[in-house]
Amino acid sequence: MAGFSVVILAAGEGKRFHSRIPKVLHPICGKPMVSYIVDAARELKPKRVVMVVQRDRAPDIDGVEFVVQESPRGTGDALLAAEPLLDEEEDVLVLPGDVPLITSSTLLSLLKLHGGSFCTILTTLLEDPTSYGRIVKSGEEVVKIVEERDATQKEREIREVNTSIYMFKTSAVFESLKDLSPENAQEEYYLTDVVGIVREKGYRIGTFLAEDSEEVIGVNDRSALSYVGEILQKRIIRRHQLLGVTISPPVVVDYDVKIGRDTTVHPFTALYGKTVIGEGCIIGPNAVIVDSYIPSGTVVKPFSIFNRQ
């Protein structure tokens, strides 16, 4: 696969969170939301990972280059901010900072399909596409992406939606971004408008359909944050179970927790932070362990609290 870079758009204000904390820094299972996207991107082995952020709002993540979007003027303007860090001869994978369920396997499939296209859009089908941008096609050809607030009634009936994940030819996308206009309901520079611009220039645009629509859920409010957290928690528990740990939900297990085989975690137990539990332990029920080391063979009695601090 040819060289490519990743740009993560993480400068959105997240107004529906009603929070002083940037949306993408809200934690899910013990990690900032955006760190899950960084992890998925790194598994693809890109040349570099660039994150567009608000001033003084960069997360503490190693191996990521940060660039500031000075004012929130839309996704198109955010991508333009990253231009000085990118090689125009390679491709760029653009990811939103609020899709923590995305997997590297889906992104790899997108990269492989991209080939010689100018742009390949990751799409999915939703029973209820409300709030998502619609993929408008003529036959199999993408005509444009239209945002919900700007869509006609007929366009709102389309079930194939934009996930805001794209693979672009770098030189061509920045040429097209300079032609954007903020003539829309939000008066912002939409990255989605690039599709219509490049179609007029005769560039090839492709789509790749993500079969699992859960992977591309955008976290736009705290209700979605909770829903996505439940899915991630199930993934984490299953990962431990497949490695030989007996877990009886409901339990809370943060992403970075390590548990040795033949350990049993009883219900209503919470394991937080960078807790490490050895092999053959019995934990709980109703135990709380925070950033602690539990040696192999330990019995943590019900209602125990361990906190390294």
What features would you describe in this structure?
With 309 residues, the protein is α/β, with parallel strands linked by helices. It has 2 domains: 4-216, Spore Coat Polysaccharide Biosynthesis Protein SpsA, Chain A (Alpha-Beta Complex), CATH 3.90.550; 244-307, UDP N-Acetylglucosamine Acyltransferase, domain 1 (3 Solenoid). The protein contains 7 helices and 22 strands. The protein has helices spanning 33-42, 75-81, 104-114, 153-156, 170-177, 193-200, 222-242, and strands spanning 4-9, 27-28, 31-32, 49-53, 65-68, 91-96, 119-125, 134-138, 141-146, 160-169, 205-209, 246-247, 251-253, 258-259, 264-265, 269-272, 276-277, 282-283, 288-290, 293-294, 299-300, 305-307. The strands form 6 sheets. Strands 5-4-1-6-10-7-11 form a 7-stranded mixed sheet, with helices on both faces. A 4-stranded parallel sheet has the order 12-15-18-21, covered by helices on one side. A hairpin with a 2-residue loop joins strand 8 and strand 9. It is elongated and about 65 Å long. It starts with a strand and ends with a strand. The model has no long low-confidence stretch (mean pLDDT 93).
